[in-house]
Amino acid sequence: MAGTRRNEPKGRKALEAGQVPRAAAESRLRAETIEGYNRHVNPYVVRALSAASLDIIETSREGARVWDADGTCYIDCATGAGIFNCGRRNPEIAARLKAALERADMGSWLSLMPERARLAKKLAEIAPGRLQYSFFTCGGGEAVDTAIKLARGYTGKSRIVAMRNGYHGVTGFALPATGREVYKSPFEPLAPGFVHIPYNDLRALEDALDEDTAAVIMETVQGEGGIVVPDDGYLPAVRRLCDERSVLLILDEIQTGLGRTGKMFGCENWGVAPDIMCLAKALSGGMIPISAAIYTPEIADFFIANPFIHINSFGGTALACTAALAAIEYIETNDLPRHAAAMGDRLRRGLREVAAGYPELAREVRGIGLMNGIEYCDESIGPRMSLQLKRNGVLSIYTFNNPKVVRIMPPLVITAAEVDAVVEAFDRAMAAVRAQGI
Length: 438
Prior knowledge:
By secondary structure, this protein is α/β, with parallel strands linked by helices. The protein has 15 helices and 15 strands. The chain has a seven-stranded mixed β-sheet with strand order 4-10-9-8-7-5-6, with helices on both faces. It has a four-stranded mixed β-sheet with strand order 1-2-3-13.
């Protein structure tokens, strides 16, 4: 179903396919934005987004949908790799943030902020296992940096075991933990002490751990690696092995956390709790930057000697914590994890039925909850499918570490009708790619 046929925000005229007007103001907005990127931001970002069929100018957002400046409506299945779990421009979270602006600014990192204490308490209540303390930062890479510094500082060991094709960000310690050379080679030498092994391979992990290993870091489900879901026994075995070898387990739940996989946190699908857990993306409902590294009481003792050995000026601001609390409450009140599980089952069932009719194009549909990927038989098909899906009203993107896989990660508020529309668009897009020829 083409996006231009979908319902639009109140006051916006519905548009028929092929009847997408370009008002002078909208056309000017697009031109000004692209010129600004080309001259003052990064011209190569424009080129890359155009190649990925994501060069839209967002003007309206609502639920699972977003509107381009030209009025075209899309179902957002890219969501910044999982930022908008609560939907685009969630009105309840926005209202809480607006109210906070009436009485607060970001706050000083040297002050004791009630909002930060309340959010940390809430995270301790909902987090798995014995996770109790939170260190707040602004982005996912910073949360990973914090986790690795905590692991090294607490254990006094330096070695970090990470996974090939894993992705943890591109900041200081997150970059060497990321498992693809294309991100790292221009910036070498990187921080030493990182070793990479195959994901979902317990024997490789057994062989990699040694007396100087501080931690194992891994995604619960590999996102940029191609939506790789581990075998059922893998994460429990990793947890046991880390306990046996006195190694910390860091789980990166930046994409999988906060309802995405059908549980509040991805690791809960396998009954596993880490020593440190990283959150970001959906933590504020897509309203304002915030991320967190959550850790056990023992690890908190690392700060005894110097409480300010690791700081972040804009991590956990009063405004961000207010939005994050509102987002968590929205997820709980509306039971978004349960909804994600149901809609994810419906989505995979539909995608698999369609993919079965195109065996020369699609190799596998896989995922968990509303974190899903379609693996194609050739790397060229992923970018072409992103284009065809866009033409049929769906925004998607291939995963950065595996271009054969197109990621389908809509907001968790997506309706059954919208899921069916995505499946219908997928069918039309596959037919168009087949007609072009491999």
